[in-house]
């Protein structure tokens, strides 16, 4: 810390230049915020005028019900309006004379692998793919599954679906064949788009092989995928033994270039689904979160503009993958809706070494840089010289997302990376919220507090609730909930509106329940304290304990499993699993590897437990509920703080578990 303070004194703090896209005073923020809450219908209608609609929305376009006792939960924005988000992302900028401006600056796994696509290039390729999708019989409302690494074809495929009113479902390319199959079957995609593979650092990832396995599983499950469109990645060709199924698989480079480069956009109703994105909950299967078009477009475009102070031509880089919500809202839609130049990063931030991020920033003259605290923590341990030897003078706004940012990482980001010149926008939001909810704004008027997500964005009313559902006013702590609807919010869960209602609205009627805890300080700033449910956040990836438990329990030698999240210095949290074997004799290194491999195969590498703790039995209440609180304390070596264990059916289990730690 001391070095940082000395360094920060030596640096001249170049003033943050206010631009028309920034809010320039506290009074302006308060005025706009107040208006957005008092008159959401009018406020958002005004914001929506910056976008192209083929038909204007009705005068009273916004309606919503958040109270489960008051009929079904629903929200609609811009009712009566028709638009097309791909048109707003691309055609609009080409028509405005920005066709030759770069849209994507792609950098591959190796620093020398580069590709620039202009707005005109991207528009033409999107149209070609849209035409191909139409030729395959994909219609408005059909779902197309995308299983691609970070190549230009991924956002292009998202936009091509949007152009014809089809719904995209991007599955992160780190998911296993089982998870992929489950997601394809759930939304019944008949078309899947993938690539031969990708290099992740020095490791080839056999994507086509995984797709083949997944589509076999789909067949067994009674769902047939008619077409797999495959992008050829020359750095990772088809792996040995992986072939082409003549009746199903086709190459992108053989079928897309011959399509017409024009395709009329399909103007869709504001509430037409735009995409599905599967995310983990505290229980059950992953949920297919449904986002719709009009409100999401306005929410994504407006938040990107104000939170990142973004203007057309700005070079923007988010290290997120399109497989997660950040890659949808703040890598694809938000930046393109603002005419930005997006760096698409197809590598790992620490490959070939820990200087990669700063090289990329120097090379492309990145203005806004958006990343996750876990990456900052892994980079700052290498010292500052690796950062300061690269030119970061282009940077203006730094963003953080995915988990609470600790003070040390915040200061390093602010002082070393941003030379004290760039505000840090610590953005709190979720897959379900679609767009930023609580965040500082990058104006010199906005006081920054390291570790605080700060203030609500326009249209967002955060409240803190007591466990009984009473609003905590002023300075205090509680469960974070949101009162009233905002344009970017998810409208339902795919095929399961009941689960949508029971997960997000039943816990506290009248509010959207976030699953996070938070504190409000004397200045009204919000500090997120972390999840209050059984969701673990590993390196900004959301993983449900129930999913990992389910994967472990599926193994025939596993009798029972309980999974908890424990603090981890780099990853934020790591996965810690307690496992009871059907045969205790098998406990040991070999069995651990078997279980780890099994989780990797069932979910994906990022869900693998760091620790497997053998448990002859698990601490349960008399009614059979596993006491995770106790397991978490034992895992972290805090058995002195176990709290009340009197409700355990057999309290001696705890001592037994403590004695087996590290075995
Ligand atoms: C959960 C949502 C939103 C895109 C990435 C994750 C945690 C997210 C912050 C932040 C503290 C944060 C919350 C939230 N989270 N951003 N700035 N400060 N916590 O999306 O996978 O839907 O996860 O991530 O716990 O509920 P997600």
Automatic annotation (TrEMBL):
Gene3D superfamilies on file: 3.30.300.30, N-terminal domain of ligase-like
InterPro entries: Ac_CoA_lig, ACAS_N, AMP-bd_C, AMP-bd_C_sf, AMP-binding_CS, AMP-dep_synth/lig_dom, ANL_N_sf
Residue ranges of domain AMP-binding enzyme C-terminal in the record: 547-625
All residue ranges annotated as the Acetyl-coenzyme A synthetase N-terminal domain in the record: 29-89
Major enzyme class: ligase
EC number: 6.2.1.1
BP-aspect Gene Ontology terms: acetyl-CoA biosynthetic process from acetate
Family: Belongs to the ATP-dependent AMP-binding enzyme family.
NCBIfam families tied to this protein: Ac_CoA_lig_AcsA, PRK00174.1
Name assigned to this protein: Acetyl-coenzyme A synthetase
Record organism: Chlamydomonas eustigma
